[in-house]
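Re: that chain you flagged

S.,

Sorry for the slow reply, it's been a week of failed gels. I finally had a moment to sit down with the sequence you sent. For the record, here it is as I used it:
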Amino acid sequence: MDCILFTASPGDRGYSRVRHKGKMVYRHRLVMAQHLGVELEALAGQHVLHSCDVRNCANPEHLRLGTNAENMQDKAERNMSACLEQHHDAKLTIEQVLWARAVYVPRHPEYGAAALARRFGVATAVMHNAIRGKTWRKINASKCQFLDGA
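Prediction finished late last night. Pasting the structure tokens below so you have them in one place:
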């Protein structure tokens, strides 16, 4: 059976939402609860996974209950994880991070974190986190080429 798509009220992550008992909830969670014949609250702590990988699908045949670990495993297996430049919060590119890591000199007027942050138009904390590997952990410098001047 095909996906049942709802395009109204998509949330910021692409999941369709609907008002239920006075609050906005994800439609696929509500559909799953109705399909199982339970109240929405009974699904607390559980994830509703899509076998079709279509976020706004509410076909109960495409939905199943799972854990957070199962959800992350499904995303990884299907290459659905938003990471690096594709992540919705990304402020830098891979090339910028690799170049910054290569030239970084603590407190240097041109190559310190504050100067690099100004260069790329981000907060100093964003640059510090990228340089130190707190963010952008998944990049592999050996697979990337550096651009002069980034």
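What I noticed first: Confidence is low (pLDDT under 50) at residues 141-150.

Talk soon,
D.
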